[in-house]
Design a protein that fits this description.
Radius of gyration: 21 Å
Strand content: under 5%
Keywords: Nucleus, Transcription, Transcription regulation
InterPro entries: Histone-fold, TFIID_TAF13
Order of helices and strands: HHHHH
Helix content: over 70%
Number of helices: 5
Distance between the termini: 57 Å
GO cellular component, one term: nucleus
Largest sheet: none
Family: Belongs to the TAF13 family.
Main location: nucleus
Length: 126
């Protein structure tokens, strides 16, 4: 009986995940509210922006991420998304393209710095 119950639970989990994709934006769990509030304040909004404004912006962000993900799934290898897929999709938007390049370069620099730091740390502990 316990095995049957766990199969039922896993089926429920799958159904809930599937249903979440079809859920209208208004009923989805808010995921980025805190970050968006901080970003809005950083870009000149009030320190405590209206909840409706944050919710609208979050809906737009989630919709954008969803659409870009779907497009990236179609561009590259089936079932996989790579950085190159995203770069390909934004190649005609100079602001987004330059920002992605900047972030990728910074990420590479940080990775190299961490590696050098770990090597120095490892050498001094011997």
């Amino acid at each position: 009986m316990a095995e049957g119950g766990s199969e039922k639970d896993s089926a429920l989990d799958f159904d809930e995940e599937e249903a979440e994709e079809d859920t209208p934006l208004e009923k989805r769990k808010k995921m980025f509210s805190k970050e968006l509030r901080c970003m809005m304040y950083g870009f000149g909004d009030d320190q405590n922006p209206y909840t409706e404004s944050v919710d609208l912006l979050e809906d737009l962000v989630i919709e954008y991420i969803t659409e870009m993900t779907k497009k990236a799934m179609e561009v590259g290898r089936p079932g996989r998304i790579s950085v190159e897929d995203i770069i390909f999709l934004i190649r005609k938007d100079p602001k987004k393209y330059s920002r992605v390049k900047e972030l990728l370069l910074m990420s590479e620099e940080l990775r190299k710095a961490r590696k050098a730091f770990d090597e120095i740390k490892y050498a001094t502990t011997k």
